[in-house]
Fold:
Amino acid sequence: MEIFKTDKIYETDGHCKNFEAEVLWCEENSDGMFDIILNRTAFFPEGGGQSSDEGTLDGQDVLFLRTENNETTIVHTVKNPIPVGKLVYGEINMKERFSRMQNHTAEHICSGIIYSLYGFNNIGFHMGQDEITMDFDGLFTQEQINNIEFLANEAVYKNVPVKFSFCKPNEADNISYRSKKKIETTLRLVEIEGIDVCACCAPHVSRTGEIGVIKILGFQKYKGGTRISLLAGERAFNELNKHFNNVKKITNSLSSNMNDICERFEQMQKELSEVKIAKTAAKQQYYSLLASTYQDNCNDNILFFDENATVEEMRFFVNLLMAKTTKICAFFSGLDGNFKFIAGSTGVDMTKISQALRTELHASCGGKTQMIQGSVCTAASEIYNFFENVLF
Structure:
């Protein structure tokens, strides 16, 4: 391929939606598509954690974008050839581009604040559709995260300019800037006035006020450091609006208001806990009475089926039944064909029963000598048959 250099419009004007350019090169690739090189382009080809732009060239969808010749040449892939020398019209999907610019600039703001306050470096960045993630080589407290979010939004409200400059690597020795890697080619520095200077190749907003809002969604320990998730701009607004509407639905259903929702939720948790305690006591009383109906020193296996019992209830009842016989006591809970179970015995090695259940009924189970637990997908009649005929 002949060496061409593409003038990158997006490096100085991230808001450029439409542009005209001359086709310098067109060649069919191995996939049957056509690679196009223009003398200038507004299409960003992916980099710095940001995905490539979407859009059209003379009405054709730009399917792929890549760089060549040490990132000085941008190659656009389209379905059909475009003649060399033709003046083409390019159009960027600006809705998606602007959303990415909002979120990417928000990442710079947060990373700059974190580096300034705590000295932690941004060592990883990914811009997904649902959230933006940033990885740092240090640990944070919730209080620090709250402070970062407050200061980041304060930077948005101040509406300070976002500036772009270029310099050779040896010319940047006296400039303080952030960078994840050493850069040997021309540096493009993105400066958010009074907040951050970072080497970056991606498009950004012109002023911080264009971001609108920055919301940190959460943070967690990650590879010895911290991963922070956030959203900004329209994506943040949509996420916050979704949660607002959900909370509003909940408050309406509880006949409460938003200011009291936490207090009302705590009250409901307390009430639910009291109901669970009462239910457990009632169930235990029920199973105690039921166990008393079984004959002492029973010489048979005891099988019991219930459609909806908890593991705790099953274990409680099996322990009561084990006092009635040295044979096997088993509780199966569920609908016919899909059961969870607990089985125990004071006179039978239940680990052997567990093995037999796995072999004969393909159960998933395990446990100790006196008690096993598991699940089985089979009919109740097959379970009865196992304990009556297969087991002994």
